[in-house]
Amino acid sequence: MNKVKALLIGSRPWSFPMTLLSVAVGTLLAAETGEFHPVNFVIVALGMILFHGATNLVNDYFDYKSGVDSEDSPTAKYRSQPLVENWVEPEELLVYCSLAYLAVAVIGGYLTYSSGPMVLVLGFIGFAASYLYTGGSVEYKYLGWGELSVFLVWGPLMVSGSYYVQAGGFSLKPLLISIPLGLLVALVLLANNLRDRDYDREAGVETVATLLDKEDALILYFLLIVAVYSNLGYLVLGGVLGLWGLLGFLSFPMAYRLIRTFFEAIPDDADARTARLEVAFAGLLTVSLIFETVL
User: Is residue 183 a contact partner of residue 228, using CB atoms and an 8 Å limit?
Assistant: First the structure.
């Protein structure tokens, strides 16, 4: 297996649209105020994709070293894993991750210089969330904090950070609009953990899905989807989003089908299916913001 291809597969590129859309939403909200810098948008998007890919690879590295990832793990049934399949050596993968983090740090340094010192603060928080997810002495993924972390990173942190790079400051509007996006990314992880629930329990891994009964975890999945669309309705009714924001409800039939499927049986690609819902919702939200800005 070609090393570049192995790394690309391990970085899970199917999940990158979630990152791009969080960046796009923050950027478009800044554009509404008259602040839009195309070069900064491209640089932020590149940096966040590198960050996302490095996070996934580092997660695979520590899961493999701790024995959580193996040929018998549920994830291996539908997604190739470079370490499990011996496409790259663990130490080699760690070097590639370090290079990706270094590239993100360089991008962060430029954005700190061009946009303001808060980029450095947000970058440090993002790196800590990424590395300590399964690494270091914290390993908070194994303590049931994973869903909260990805909600904060792909929601408030990424959307508000992208807004800050464009506008040079923060605003309540991007923070509020980031909530349903963050909830949906948290749902992707919850779906993954629901599928892996029995395996994780045997491996001694604590997640929200293992800490709850299976039925309660499924109810939580349902309630979070309800929260996403309830939040969208609140944003429109409260005037935070214009009427174009109602476009987001076009993704609801997809959410309904997901709920029905999950209550019947958790599919092997539960996380990928939930990610498609997130992309559909965030894509429609992005289109609505473009319409609000242009029309």
Answer: yes
User: End-to-end CA distance of the chain, in Å?
Assistant: 49
Give the per-residue pLDDT at 1.
63
Q: Indicate the domain borders of the chain.
A: 3-294
Number of other CB atoms surrounding residue 103 within 10 Å: 15
**In angstroms, rounded to a whole number, what is the distance separating the alpha carbons of residues 42 and 25?**
13
Tokens 């303590």, located at residue: 143
Question: What's the confidence (pLDDT) of residue 138?
Answer: 86
The contacts of residue 266 (CB under 8 Å, 6+ apart) are 191, 194, 195
- In the prediction, which pLDDT does 70 show? 76
Q: What is the pTM of this model?
A: 0.94
Interval 35-92: pLDDT, tens: 999 999 999 999 999 999 999 999 999 988 888 877 777 776 767 788 888 889 999 9
Which DSSP helix (H) or strand (E) runs through 1?
none
SS3 68: coil
**What is the number of residues in the chain?**
295
| 89 token code pair | 């050596």
Nearest to 146 by CA among 57, 228, 207: 207
Pairwise CA distance, residues 266 & 70, whole Å = 20
> What local confidence, expressed as pLDDT, does residue 4 receive?
82
Average confidence score pLDDT of the chain: 94
CATH of 3-294, one of 1.10.600, 1.10.860, 1.20.120, 1.10.8: 1.10.600
For residue 24, what pLDDT is reported? 98
Residue 143: what are its φ and ψ, rounded to 5°? -115, 10
> H helices then E strands: how many in the chain?
13, 0
Q: Which of 135, 133, 108, 101 is nearest to 123 (CA)?
A: 108
Report how far residue 277's alpha carbon sits from residue 260's, in angstroms, rounded to the nearest whole number.
14
Q: Provide DSSP, 206-218.
A: B-HHHHS-HHHHH
